UniProtKB/TrEMBL annotation:
This is NTE family protein. One of its GO terms (molecular function) is hydrolase activity. PANTHER family: NEUROPATHY TARGET ESTERASE/SWISS CHEESE D.MELANOGASTER, SLR0060 PROTEIN. GO terms for biological process: lipid catabolic process. A motif (DGA/G) lies at residues 194-196. A motif (GXSXG) lies at residues 41-45. It comes from Methylobacterium brachiatum.
Length: 342
């Protein structure tokens, strides 16, 4: 009799081009003896999630890996920075500081410039990447792996979750809509910004919506803890961005781990308490290399994307060697304090 695979629900945090790091992590996880049964994502995590479920629906684990690679190759092929790729690896150490400074200047000026760049404000480049790489019809139609995409309602600040046929191009745009770069995305008369502000990602549906997951693996793109605050305005802005996009994940993980501890220590078991008691919670933490990356998250050159993918695979490999034994058996994340202690 074949051994039962652990049934894994994936929570995918957002983070611009750092989503390529997430690609590397997922690519490595798909080599394990696991079954992905549900996915939740925000921003770049939503894109990774959409590519993943489309590939899983049509080609299984290999299809998921191929679909993710297609997404990130399409991103690099349409990158405004693609012109810097033709100089060869020898010149990269000289070009990287120039690219970083150019992106920083663009970020600083975006609030003043973007209103006069309608193709940027309307996310035309984003739309082109999605259309070229993700089979949205399959995403909306498939029922094998439910996908939840979060966006932030501008007026209320609350999270809106899109799932099933609601996961359209517009929903992915809403989930990835950084307000300093893009115009709000309107859906059904409501306007939305990036999902990372309100649910980065949404964990509740992965635990409580009856997907039968044995394990919840949360893939983080922005570290909770950093060694330095920095003094430059760009460094301070980067840390503020990290804190902002981690706040809801920190809150949700703290609540979930505390609820699980209570559920496992008591005999009170309604359906919700049973669900949280039975699922194993894991956090695949972002490495320190991804801290303070507000500017570098805009770098979509293939050299950067490839390096992030490799970092993701290496980080996943290390996590699996240290904590992989807990998949299917116990929570490797017992308390949030264990990972944010100074």
């Amino acid at each position: 009799m074949a051994e039962m695979k652990p049934r894994v629900a994936l929570g995918l945090q957002g983070g611009g081009s750092y989503g390529a790091y997430g690609w590397g992590v997922i690519d490595r996880l798909l080599e394990e003896h696991i079954e992905i049964v549900a996915v939740s994502g925000a921003s770049a995590g939503a894109l990774n999630g959409a590519a993943l479920v489309a590939g899983l629906a049509t080609g299984g684990d290999d299809g998921g890996r191929e679909s993710l690679e297609r997404l990130w190759r399409a991103t690099a092929e349409r990158s405004p920075l693609r012109g810097f790729e033709g100089f060869g690896t020898y010149f990269e150490p000289f070009l990287d500081p120039f690219v970083a400074r150019s992106l920083a200047l663009f970020r600083e000026a975006s609030a003043y410039v973007s209103p006069f760049l309608p193709t940027l404000r309307d996310m035309h480049l984003f739309q082109a990447v999605v259309r070229a790489s993700i089979d949205l019809e399959t995403v909306a139609r498939q029922e094998r792996v439910p996908l939840y995409v979060s966006a932030t309602d501008i007026l209320t600040g609350a999270a809106r979750l899109f799932t099933g046929p609601e996961v359209t191009l517009k929903a992915l745009m809403a989930s990835s809509c950084l307000p300093e770069l893009f115009a709000p995305v309107e859906i059904d008369g409501r306007r939305y910004w990036d999902g990372g502000y309100a649910a980065n990602p949404a964990l509740e549906p992965l635990v409580f919506n009856g997907h039968g997951a044995t394990d919840l693996i949360v893939l983080q793109l922005t570290p909770f803890v950093t060694d330095e605050i920095g003094r430059l305005p760009s460094e301070i802005a980067g840390r503020v961005s990290d804190i902002s996009f981690n706040a809801c994940l920190m809150r949700d993980l703290k609540a979930l781990t505390e609820l699980q501890r209570y559920a496992r220590e008591t005999d009170t078991r309604d359906a919700r308490m049973g669900a949280v008691a039975d699922i194993n919670i894991h956090l695949l933490q972002a490495p320190c290399e991804l801290a303070g990356g507000e500017i570098s998250k805009l770098d979509t050159r293939w050299s950067t994307i490839g390096a992030l993918r490799d970092l993701g695979r290496a980080t996943a490999e290390r996590w699996l060697s240290e904590s992989g034994h807990a998949i299917g058996t116990d929570s490797s994340l017992q308390t949030l304090e264990a990972v944010i202690a100074p």
